[in-house]
Amino acid sequence: MQTHFSEQQKTDPAIQRAEDALRKCVHCGFCNATCPTYQLTGNELEGPRGRITLIQDLLETEAEPSPEVITSLDHCLSCLSCESTCPSGVSYRHLIDLGRERIEQSGRRSFSQRTIRGTLARLLPNVVWFRRALRFGKMLNPLVRFTGRFSSSVAALGGLVPEHIPDAKALIAPGVYPAEGEELKRVALILGCVQNALAPEIDAATVRTLTRHGCAVVVPEKSKAGCCGALPHHLGKRQQTENMARQNLEVWDLEAWDLEAIDAVLMTASGCGSMLKDYSDLLPDEPSAKLLADKVKDLSQILADLTLKVEKPLLGPSGKPLVVAWQNPCSLQHGFKEKTAPIDVLEACGLTVMQPQDAHLCCGSAGTYNLLQSEIASQLGNNKVTALLNTRPDIIVSSNIGCMTQISTTMGKHKLPVVHLAEMVDWASGGEIPGAVNNL
User: Which domains are assigned to the chain?
Assistant: First the structure.
């Protein structure tokens, strides 16, 4: 693509990166073939190619974003399926991020939109307040269903409320959890925000699984600093995202970890892990950001390097090995560029692993997307659940709390267990039965 930035504009590092991405785009349209929103609508402005054109015009003209531009960019899931498909290597993530930042800075959103987005950006990353909101939402849910007088975002948030809200005491404590037997790896486990409010048992299963397989797990004393920054990042709030990242780097105190002795840095929600890997791009002038990003791995990548202790396969109702449907989160397959490690790990547990049709398409969770764009998210969620159920699994396995919640709430009458990879491997190697399985 040709670009027409002024010399003054080109002094901005963000514009330099945008121009580099734009010049690589040849408008071939391969990206549209794997874009979830384009697949739903067939509308050019609901695909990456159309959005790239809108973003280029927005950046070059520095005009106020029109309602058409705002709607098109808001409808993007940032799933990055287009990046995995692009033959030219266009960094779409940087373009969509910059476009959203410009929209946020323009002040063109309505008061209600600004209020909802600002509330989500502050509420969700705060574990204490989010847990209180969940309890309030549980009380409010019957009223929401009965009256229908609440916004779609409030209704969608109410739909995420689990039947049982975990107590704060369920969180694992900071400290060093020694490996059982010879120490093969040392892993720093960073606790997140939303997952700790909805499912703290995932990190507990992770610690049990890793220590059982020869990994010492370091949970930093101040690892509860808060959100990794992914949630405000999805909302185009660059300054808040940077502030969170810098605060985390300071609070986590990498020197105290002795990072050179750490083999991997882990967050068990793949969306959060993917965000940590982007710290080096978010804060290019922070050496500690790159140091951290280079150490980040997904749990499946760590487990794939280990010999799993599975004495006998888990059996399903038919007496045959359990059949699991693997739902690969966008943040893992497109963010981490990892598609094989989770399947290898599950198969090493003696499980029969199925993958749904169109596994590259997003389930509709996408951070805060299912709260802000509930209609599209619902369509994508239904499509994903149908594809998963068509594999006829006993259990659905994923590795991102957003995906797990989206699938569970979309399941309807088909109440199959939705289990995190950590819980599945913990169970298969002699640990606890996951609550989602045990409660059926």
Answer: 9-106 (1.10.1060.10), 111-159 (no CATH), 168-226+239-303 (no CATH), 309-438 (3.40.50)
